[in-house]
Design brief:
- This protein has helices at residues 7-15, 30-40, 60-66.
- With 74 residues, the chain is an all-alpha fold.
- The chain has a domain at 28-42 and 52-69.
- The protein is extended, with a radius of gyration of 17 Å.
- 0% of the residues are buried.
Length: 74
């Protein structure tokens, strides 16, 4: 790859990026989860030493089962 990132792309990645701190009261569809996962799985790791382990839960029962394992900030 020889194409350099534009100044705008670099700014989006490094100087203008912000943590999302708001949520919509709207469910995320299974198709959206698949799309997000397809992008995230291609992200770099340190020599594949930190592979992602992702479980998508959507039912209220699954959320309640997971709740005890979450840290208080979640």
């Amino acid at each position: 790859m020889t194409d350099a990132l534009t100044a705008s792309a670099l700014a989006t990645l490094f100087t203008e990026a912000r943590t999302h701190n708001g949520w919509l009261d709207k469910p995320v569809t299974g198709e959206q989860l698949k799309t997000i996962y397809a992008l995230a799985r291609m992200g770099p790791t340190s020599a594949n030493c930190s592979p992602a382990r992702i479980v998508f839960i959507q039912s209220q029962e699954a959320k309640e089962k997971l709740a005890p394992a979450l840290s208080s900030g979640n």
